[in-house]
Structures are given as C-alpha cells and as structure tokens.
Amino acid sequence: MARKLFYEHVDVFTKKLFGGNQLAVFPSPGKLTKQQMQNIAREINFSESTFIYPSRKKGIEARVRIFTPADEIPFAGHPTIGTAFVLLSRGRGKGKKPETLSIELDVGVIDLDVEYSGKSISMIRMHQPVPEFGSALQNRGQAARALGIKTYEVIGGGVVSNGLDFLIVEAQNPEVVKRAGLSMSEAMSVITRHKVCGIYLFARVESRKANVRSRFFAPGLNVPEDPATGSAAGALGGYLARILKFPATLRLAIEQGVEIGRPSMILVDVQCDRGIVHSVKVSGCTIHAGEGTIFLP
User: Fold this and answer.
1) Rounded to whole angstroms, how far apart are CA atoms 284 and 269?
2) pTM, rounded to two decimals
3) Which end of the chain has the smaller Cβ count within 10 Å, N or C?
4) Is 72 labeled as catalytic in the residue annotation?
C-alpha cells in the first residue's frame, strides 16, 4: 500500500499568489532515503523542495534538507525562508510569537528574524553566510554567448561563494537583462569553467521599487531559470559591496522573475567595516499557495 506524504506549497519573495518562487515543504516526512527525497523533488519539479527533521543541536528549531529536481544542495535562500514560514505558521497559537528562529542546514546553522503585522508573518530576514570572493569573470565573450547578449553588454563579473558558488555577471542595463536568452551548451561550458552552480545576470536600475533587475540560470541543477534566488541575491550584495569599496551599509531591492511571469522582490542588507563584509541579510515575504499529498511506493 502506498504511503501518503503531506506537503505545504508556499510562494516565497512575493505578496501575491502565483508570484515569487514556489516551494514544497514536507513538515513530517518520516524516514526517507536520499533517493526517495530526490525522486519526490523531481516529481514536484519546483526549483526546490525541503524536508524537515528534528535537529540534535540545542536551540535549533529543525534540520532541513534541500533538493532541486537534480540534486541535494547545502544552502539556498527561498527554501530557508519558505521553510521557516511553514514552521512558524504550524506553531502559531502556541504562545508568544517568536521574533527569531534558527534552522540547521548542511552549510551550518542559519539564523532568521521574523516580523509580524498583527497575527500574520509580514517578513522573514535570513542571516546568510558571509560571502567569499573567487576569480574574476574569465571570458566575457563566452559569458555573453551563454546569455544570448553581446560581449560589449557585459560590464564585468566574478565568482562569489556563500555556501553555493555563483558566477555574477553585470549587464550594461536592464534591457539587456530582459532580452537575455540561455544557450544551454555555452552556459554549461561557463558553469563548468568557473565551477559554479549557475549564472546570475543583473543590472543596476533606478526605480521607485527596485535598484537591481536580475535573472538566474542553473541548468546543471535542472533549473533553466529561477524566479527568485535569495542565496544569489546575498552573493550579489557582497559582490556590489566590493565593487563600491565596502560602504558601511548597502541595501538592495532586487526584482527577479518578471521575464517568466513570476515577479519577485528580494531585499538585501550588507554591513561592511574596514574593507570587509561583516554581514549579509536577505529578506522577503511568503504566502501560502496550497497543499497536497504525494504517494510513495
């Protein structure tokens, strides 16, 4: 007889249904093998699915495993925030609303701050690992071909790591970001060359609601384009802090997912001191989008 596994479906980095990044959260998965979790994530086919287990560490709310349709990963932004939202929502009504939460991932313990509007969770802020800077973009022409844009439209870029390794590529303007189109073979060559999980394309903008427009492509993880990438947004915060000579504070409002019909908003706060990034916080809204049951043979 097939076993039934319940999951919650949330949309992260949005205030509206059918926006942001989809996440399937399994709050009580029970004993599953890694292959079973991978099969479930592939079947649901969201950018990520998460599985919640008890943590053996004191003061930690839960241990969370994160799977893309292709592989398990040690860290990611929207799965961390979305899973925290589910944990908090399921615990609502059991006393005082917590203002902080800690979750154990493979990359380590991630701390989160929680804001409320009345009884509802309005915002969750994730403290990310401090980024480390790798090599500069090695071949602008190859990166441009991978993204379907012109070489002169690539301003620069480099590798930034914060639990995952990203290739950050800066475009000349948001119109370049808008019309980019992935060339799979070229993109995989760039990803392999730089040993990263994907390519994060961005441009600086000036508008009332955002100062960055971005897109993220991770074909190696079976995610051709991600609607909202909190981990990469944090890496970008570190990258821009370095480019801007490490200002004391840097705040980014990043618009992503517009080109694939899932508009998202990610907020990033970076604190620097004496030429060093000291902290990166990534914030966003989350909403319930549904729930379901999957059958496990």
Assistant:
1) 12
2) 0.95
3) N
4) no
Burial string for 263-276 (b: 16+ CB within 10 Å, else e) reads bbbbbbbbbbeeee
What does the pLDDT look like over 15-49, one tens digit per residue?
999 999 999 999 999 999 999 999 999 999 999 99
Tally of residues, the chain: 297
pLDDT digits (tens, 9 = 90+) for 255-281: 999 999 999 999 999 999 999 999 999
Q: Which of 8, 48, 61, 153 is catalytic?
A: 48
53: left (phi over 0), alpha (psi -120 to 50) or beta: beta
Report d(CA 135, CA 166) in Å as an integer: 11
- Whether 257 and 288 have beta carbons less than 8 Å apart is answered as no
One-letter amino acid at 296 equals: L
**Which phi and psi angles does 29 have, rounded to 5°?**
-75, -20
The CB-side HSE value for 208 (13 A sphere, CA atoms) comes to: 0
Phi/psi at 89 (5° precision)? -65, -40
